[in-house]
Amino acid sequence: MSVFGITGIRIDDHTGVVTHVRWGQINPKNNSWFTEPVDAPVTDVVNAIVNGDEVWTIIPVAGAQTALGPRVHTMLSTGGLEGIAVPPDTPDDRSFDVLPKI
What we know:
The protein has one domain. Helices cover about 10% and strands about 45% of the residues. It is built from 1 helix and 8 strands; from the N terminus they run E-E-E-E-H-E-E-E-E. The strands form 2 sheets. Strands 1, 2, 3, 4, 5 and 6 form a 6-stranded mixed beta sheet that branches. It is globular and about 40 Å long.
């Protein structure tokens, strides 16, 4: 199992669905990057989660600091496409809305 962090997202203006992410593999032992974040289609994230990997958001906080956000899970959009989401009870300051747009 690998651990990944999402640092940015692209949301479709018409559907409100996440279409792309900026993400990289994390070393959970020291919270450093195994791989620098790169832009990828959301299907890559869905596949990683389905294959047993953990995916978390990395939330920007004061200055250049970051904090671990909620764990990401898969979901079905109203159009029947698989996508990603954070838990519905996630506070606004930890939602996808606070991630930088790519």
